[in-house]
């Protein structure tokens, strides 16, 4: 356990602001002081604070102000959650002369009437929320709130204005020398004489001086400090109890036991055996200041939100019924006669779904049939073609392998019927071939271990390929893709073993495929974390072993792990490793980095397939909202020309990595709900498919294309997650209210100028926004009915279409119009030439 080595704390303020604000769990901080005013707000639990010569037991909702230069410390009483605001008093000197010398009396402890502290609680809660959301102009808002807080303190809690604070500072500097000496020597025998001589006092005066200023006697202070420092040794098995007592300054084991039991109610031996809850279970980062614990962000911000409640519900930061949305202006001025290139339709190359067995169901097949009719894709990818629920492989009573491709035939036959080709992921391991039968993932127990017999694994691959060629013909199978495994970079999640074991599996599988026919397309393998780095290891292995792979596949999910360990990234479909959402340009930056490294290895012509991507790696309520439409359009337009396919994960909410949700709008990955309703992202695909083959112009929020004599303008208004949600805090997310987790919303007004247009045109304007085409938003308007009848479902679908406005116009060389987009809106304007 780390103990403070300096009694003066230097506050590092939030950039440009005269304050520092944070939430933590208090265990124990030794005495220290600073020039800043410190406000403590207990969100949960209990902690004891020692300020000057007094001590205060703070419990839930208590407020305590610690004045500038006041010596103070704190210690654990019960598991706690504490909000702290530290304010630079010097900043306010230009507004209120003598502010730095004011002493405040602000503490809610023991108050019969605590209503006067509610305003402080609300201000502190709102300040913390504003700082963490970091929405536009939050610097101005936080300063406004800070000045409101200062005015409140001056009005209600000003106690006295000191004429000279030098005496206090001098006393604190003297106490600082004493505490620093104890910090450095507590393991030794420190006497009253030693400390008295340090500050040139006699022993009797020093004893009373210490107790008056610290609040406890020197003997108790030394015992407390030695006790706290002994905890880290108790949590280790390196020393016995007697060694711990002596190495921390106690005279003997007996005195250590006595002090320990007085403080904690149990002996050191019992403490060592017993699991101690939140108090001693945390680890510290290298840059952690003082003895502050980690904390539950979601719990903290849910608590803060409770203090911003008003009679009509929760008050949202920046949200007011009378507020107007911010407006951002943009001009697009383009000459449509200038062709800049061809549009690569990589977004319609590949679609995905959960696992092979799901594709045998009637409702699933009904959905795919409709998708292929409406927004057709060329290939389809999925997990588990060799998993046991497809009944492909087992060992009979005589120990011989039995192969059965009947269910695979049913699935691929259906693909052929709806005109889509398989992008075959080779995996996972059949139970009877697995080297570790317990190494599974998802509730359906996909086995991710190495084969116990490599020759039998290769025989399975050979039999499968030969069967497909016999059934569908060599020329057809040559058009398929064979992706070897899935995300082997996630150890103990999708691969049980080291890289060398996987590379051998990859080599043997790749060689088996090419031995059947060199023109079969094989590659892999869907890396998702450290994409460039891990794939370069794979590429080096391929080059060293003369494996001329046909493509590389990746899964650039825009997340960053907060725990570098990837062990148990999923457990049966449940995400257990913490992560944060990455920057909005994560996917394009990842792809550019990968392409640059491939170029350096002479592989710049290697096909790149994104066989999975989404905004999250698990279910997320935003998946059902309008957010996903501009998310898709942005990432398609960013990357369509950089990769060969963009496989959004996944097309349907009939998806079973975990137990199926009973709710329609549960935040599933799909662009179709589990009962076939079309989400906004579905309509976004329709708009993308209306783009032409020739590229006129492309910028960060629009694209202009041409098809024959017609033109298409696609514009979107994307809003990324705000700072809180990016850090996996869901305080502003709820089942019904899903739009409070984004950057400050704004309306976009675009002045569109197209030069070079001549003739008569029919202009079709498709609007996709919360009022037009958002099935979730219309469900809310209907009352958020959970168990819907068929009639209600049909009605909901009928009112959730995109808006289409049509007008006819004659254009003489130049077209000008103003286009308005709401937050999360996607809009397509078609110019279809009329030939008379």
Keywords:
globular, single chain, alpha+beta, eight-stranded parallel sheet, 22 helices, disordered N terminus, 836 residues
What does this structure look like?
By secondary structure, the protein is of the alpha+beta class. Helix content is 31%, strand content 25%. The chain is built from 22 helices and 35 strands. Strands 12, 13, 30, 31, 32, 33, 34 and 35 form an 8-stranded mixed beta sheet that branches. Strands 14-15-18-21-22-23-28-29 form an 8-stranded parallel beta sheet. Helix 1 (118-133) packs antiparallel against helix 2 (138-156), helix 4 (192-198) crosses helix 5 and helix 16 (531-544) packs parallel to helix 17. It is globular and about 105 Å long.
Structural class: alpha+beta
The average pLDDT is 86
Helix content: 25-40%
Instruction: Report the uncertain regions.
Output: 1-8, 163-169, 275-295, 310-322, 564-576
**The biggest beta sheet, please?**
8 strands, mixed
Using the alpha-carbon principal axes, give the shape.
globular
């Amino acid at each position: 356990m780390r103990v403070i080595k300096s009694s003066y704390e230097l506050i590092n303020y939030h950039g440009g602001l005269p304050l520092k604000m944070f939430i933590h769990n208090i265990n124990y901080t030794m005495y220290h002081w600073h020039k800043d005013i410190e406000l403590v707000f207990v969100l949960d639990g209990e902690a004891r604070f020692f300020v000057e010569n007094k001590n205060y037991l703070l419990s839930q909702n208590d407020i305590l102000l610690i004045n500038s230069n006041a010596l103070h410390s704190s210690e654990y009483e019960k598991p706690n959650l504490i909000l702290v605001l530290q304010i630079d008093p010097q900043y306010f000197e230009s507004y209120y002369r003598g502010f730095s010398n004011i002493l405040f009396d602000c503490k809610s402890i023991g108050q019969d009437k605590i209503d006067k502290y509610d305003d402080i609680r609300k201000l502190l809660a709102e300040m913390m929320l504003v700082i963490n959301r970091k929405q536009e102009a939050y610097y101005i808002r936080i300063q406004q709130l800070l000045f409101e807080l200062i005015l409140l303190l001056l009005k209600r809690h000003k106690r006295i204005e000191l004429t000279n604070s030098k005496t206090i500072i001098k006393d604190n500097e003297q106490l600082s020398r004493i505490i620093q000496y104890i910090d450095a020597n507590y393991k030794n025998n420190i006497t009253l004489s030693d400390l008295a001589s340090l500050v040139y006092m006699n022993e009797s005066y020093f004893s009373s001086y210490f107790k008056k200023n610290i609040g406890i006697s020197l003997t108790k202070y030394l015992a407390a400090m030695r006790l706290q420092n002994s905890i880290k040794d108790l949590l280790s098995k390196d020393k016995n109890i007697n060694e711990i007592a002596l190495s921390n300054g106690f005279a003997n084991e007996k005195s250590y036991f006595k002090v320990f039991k007085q403080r904690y109610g149990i002996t050191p031996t019992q403490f060592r055996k017993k699991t101690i809850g939140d108090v001693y279970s945390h680890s510290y980062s290298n840059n952690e200041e003082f003895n502050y614990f980690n904390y539950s962000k979601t719990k903290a911000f849910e608590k803060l939100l409770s203090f911003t409640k008003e009679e009509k519900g929760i008050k949202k930061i920046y949200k007011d019924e009378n507020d107007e949305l911010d407006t951002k202006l943009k001009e697009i001025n383009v000459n449509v006669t200038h062709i800049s290139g061809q549009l690569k339709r990589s977004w319609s190359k590949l679609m995905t779904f959960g696992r092979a067995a799901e594709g045998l169901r009637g409702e699933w097949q009904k959905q795919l049939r409709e998708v292929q009719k409406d927004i057709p894709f060329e290939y389809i990818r999925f997990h588990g073609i060799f998993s046991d629920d497809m009944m492909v492989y087992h060992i009979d009573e005589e120990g011989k392998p039995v192969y059965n491709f009947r269910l695979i035939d049913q699935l691929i036959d259906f693909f052929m019927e709806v005109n889509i080709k398989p992008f075959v992921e080779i995996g996972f391991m059949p139970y009877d071939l697995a080297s570790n039968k317990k190494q599974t993932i998802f509730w359906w127990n996909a086995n991710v271990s190495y084969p116990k017999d490599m020759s039998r694994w290769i025989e399975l691959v050979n039999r499968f390929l030969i069967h497909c060629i016999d059934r569908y013909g060599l020329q057809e199978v040559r058009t398929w893709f064979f992706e070897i495994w899935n995300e082997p970079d996630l150890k103990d999640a999708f691969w049980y073993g080291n890289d060398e074991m996987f590379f051998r599996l990859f080599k043997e599988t790749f060689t088996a495929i090419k031995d059947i026919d060199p023109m079969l397309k094989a590659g892999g393998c869907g890396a998702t974390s450290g994409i460039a780095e891990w794939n370069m290891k794979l590429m080096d292995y391929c080059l060293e072993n003369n494996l001329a792979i046909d493509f590389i596949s990746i899964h650039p999910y825009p997340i960053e792990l907060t725990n570098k360990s990837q062990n148990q990234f999923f457990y049966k479909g449940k995400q257990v490793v913490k992560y944060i959402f990455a920057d909005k340009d994560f996917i394009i930056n990842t792809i550019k980095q990968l392409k640059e490294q491939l170029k350096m290895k002479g592989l710049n012509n290697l096909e790149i397939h994104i066989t999975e991507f989404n905004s999250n790696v698990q279910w997320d309520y935003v998946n059902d909202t309008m957010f996903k439409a501009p998310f898709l359009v942005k990432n398609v337009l960013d990357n369509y020309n950089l990769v060969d396919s963009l496989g959004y994960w996944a097309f349907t909410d009939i998806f079973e990595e975990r137990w199926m949700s009973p709710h329609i709008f549960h935040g599933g990955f799909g662009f179709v709900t589990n009962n076939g309703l079309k989400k906004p992202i579905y309509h976004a695909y329709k708009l993308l498919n209306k783009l032409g083959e020739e590229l006129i112009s492309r910028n960060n929020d629009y694209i202009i294309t041409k098809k024959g004599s017609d033109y298409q303008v696609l514009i979107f208004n994307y809003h990324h997650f705000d700072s809180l949600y990016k850090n996996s805090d869901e305080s502003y997310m709820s089942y019904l209210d899903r739009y409070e987790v984004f950057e400050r919303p704004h309306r976009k007004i675009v002045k569109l100028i197209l030069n070079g247009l001549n003739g008569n045109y029919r202009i079709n304007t498709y609007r996709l926004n919360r009022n037009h085409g958002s099935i979730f938003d219309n469900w809310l308007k209907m009352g958020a009915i959970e168990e819907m009848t068929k009639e209600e479902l049909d009605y909901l679908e009928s009112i959730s279409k995109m808006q289409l406005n049509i007008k006819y116009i004659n254009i003489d060389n130049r077209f000008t119009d103003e286009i308005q987009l709401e937050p999360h809106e996607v809009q397509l304007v078609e110019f279809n030439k009329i030939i008379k």
